[in-house]
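Ticket closed. Logging final result for Tubulin delta 1.
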Amino acid sequence: MEPKVINQMLSKAAQSGQWKYGQHACFCQKQGSGNNWAYGYSVHGPRHEESIMNIIRKEVEKCDSFSGFFIIMSMAGGTGSGLGAFVTQNLEDQYSN
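Final structure:
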């Protein structure tokens, strides 16, 4: 969730030439979860739910034939600990098909 981590990922993806992420489709905050899954799930998730789900909704609306999500999460934790599980649960609720 931290800008430094997100910017590194965007930079490496752009350098590879194989994948490009749009800046508008990324969500970051100055404060991460600091490897605390419960904090990410119970605090950051509900606090930023609307912003994150709006980003996802906008990306889905761009699709001609949307068929689902491909979720990749780190099992080792990190700055976004818990947030991925929270977002995945929301995706299941909002896009049940």
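Helices lie at 3-16, 37-61, 83-94. No further action required.
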